[in-house]
Amino acid sequence: MTVREIKPGVYSVGAVDWDRRLFDELIPLPEGTSYNSYLVRGSAKTALIDTVDPSKEAELIGNLQAAGVGSLDYIVANHAEQDHSGSIPRMLELYPGAKVVANEKAREYLTVLLGIDPGRFQVIKDGDRLDLGGKTLEFIFAPWVHWPETMLTLLVEERILFTCDMFGSHLATSDLYASDEGRVVKSAKRYYAEIMMPFRHIIRNHLQKLKAVVFDVIAPSHGPIYGRPKLILDAYEDWTSDDVKNVVVLAYVSMHGSTAKLVEHLIDALIRRGVAVKPFNLPRTDLGELAIELVDAATIVIATPTVLAGPHPSAVYAAYLANALRPKARYAAVVTSYNWGGRAAEQLAGMLGNLKVELLPSLAFKGLPSKGDYAAVEKLADEIAARHKGL
Length: 391
Ligand code: FEO
Description:
By secondary structure, the protein is an alpha/beta fold. It folds into two domains: 237 residues, 4-Layer Sandwich (Metallo-beta-lactamase, Chain A); 137 residues, Rossmann fold (3-Layer(aba) Sandwich). 34% of the residues lie in helices and 25% in strands. The chain has twelve helices and 23 strands. A seven-stranded mixed β-sheet has the order 1-2-7-8-9-10-11. Strand 10, helix 4 and strand 11 form a beta-alpha-beta unit. Helix 5 crosses helix 7 and helix 5 packs across helix 9. The model has no long low-confidence stretch (mean pLDDT 96). Bound molecules: MU-OXO-diiron. The site of MU-OXO-diiron has 7 residues, from helix 2.
């Protein structure tokens, strides 16, 4: 992506990765992503804020050349993960006078992960400032957005907050700013669900702390910049709050149709009771879409047939994911079908230990659902609807 000026002396010099479809060999990227890097030129010193994924290193180098950067004084590492830090070693070769500005934890991680010479660091503390000459960088520690070492950098005079992963979105776009707000927020919600949701309570504290910080632009290191920060700040307030929506996420897999019949019945039963349902047929599901719905849903139901005495692997994966992402759901239930035995329901329920949910009684059905089985599904719908009252 070409060099673009954000404010006088501040440039976007990162790269858009239009074709990337998987992150960490785990997270689907239906709309690609970007690795944003920002150049800040003061009258005395020049700083680069975050670099790019090593696969886009040549693009960053080309952009710095196009911007006429002859020397760099500082490379600010807001986060040690390689999609932002991976090009630091090459930057240090190209700019031998540059120091890596990082907190102590990031220094440790960057030394271990990238083999950066410990002598190349300038270690800063929370609230420290760096004067570039008419442009001042202030460092605001914000651990766990996404790793323990993450921090934000404020460009004081221009009121730009560089947030790295926080407020980011995996979105490849030619828009420098978030102009298509609906699309950006949906993408940011997917990003929040996959990366930030496990740290919801900590992020809530960060949002509180940011209320005392003066900025009018948020420049993350994935996705477009927010010229209207309220858009993403309000969204984060909502996502990190304890409020849940009148929604059941129903993650299921069916091998020979018995579980599917129960699931179809449960969907109808919930709709009849005024409860919204988001069904996900797991073998055909983009897990990012499932994660998005987990952000707000009041209830999670996982339904599975029994395979070799346990839950289907797709259901195991969904339970593991939900447990790891720690959504704010208040209720959960497990529905299983079986023929010759098994403990699928117990095993699945046992995988949800991280969730602060009331576990509703599990349902286990033998073979094709009978009248009594459908009645039990109706009862489960009753239990859920009663708990959703007022949402
Ligand atoms: Fe975009 Fe946690 O790296």
